Amino acid sequence: MFKQLSLITFALVFVGHPISSTAATAQANTLTPQEKAQGWQLLFNGQNLEGWHSYLQKAPGKDWKVEDGAIMLERSRTGDEKDFADLVTNAEYSNFDLKLEWKMTPCADSGVMFYVHESPKYSETYETGPEMQIADLVCTKPDSQVLYERSGDLFDLISSDVERVQEAGNWNQFEIIADHGHIQFFQNGYKVIDTYFWNDDWRKLIARTKFAQWPDFGTFQTGHISLQGTEDKGELPIRLWFRNIKLRQL
User: Fold this and answer.
1) Structural domain 31-249, CATH architecture
2) Residues with Cβ < 8 Å from 50, sequence gap 6 or more?
3) What is the residue extent of each domain of the chain?
4) pTM (predicted TM-score)
5) Do 7 and 19 meet the contact criterion of CB atoms below 8 Å apart?
6) CB atoms within 10 A of CB 157
7) What pLDDT, in 10s, does the model give residues 47-106?
8) Are 185 and 148 in contact (CB under 8 A)?
9) How far is it, in rounded angstroms, from Cα 148 to Cα 156?
10) Cα-to-chain-centroid distance, residue 31
């Protein structure tokens, strides 16, 4: 009885209404009539990686695949980086509301980047795109123990409330709202970041961090959305899953 109650308590959607885990899975990667009317679009169809490619490549790297209705990355700590290079959308976006769910194996590390400018001029996505960090609360080191590098943070720039993340193996919900420079992050339904890009305060903030070495970081107002696959932290094999990736242009 206790186990049954625990499962019901854990199964929550963004707004806090209880649903069964079976119902949550059945509804994955779909839009309700209301969402369609509001202008939401799926960035992942639940079946293949159409609409995505690996950064600076024509197609997804071979370590990215679709499993049980989720984008899944399985990688080791070695191998050709092209195989697990960050996944990016084919399309670019300016002002948007983005929602997605993710989970990981213990101690893994990743992130969701946006305003990524794809060009041979930049060897990595993080040279241009700010990141909403994904990290295991329990054991990802050093990220889970360092402010500005914990799950939900605007990575290396602004720290969030780390307690809003579920431990490895459980689905977490991210939402990024980017509205004409007003940036808000939500983790599991709680607002964790609220800031503004492209003003003097933003430029001063970047100047105090490692991103200062990349003069174009955080300057683009249109760009790709990216799922990070290049971190090698975690227990082997390192696995990440993403699903319910939907976006509404503002």
Assistant:
1) Sandwich (2.60)
2) none
3) 31-249
4) 0.88
5) no
6) 21
7) 999 999 999 999 999 999 999 999 999 998 998 999 999 999 999 999 999 999 999 999
8) no
9) 5
10) 19
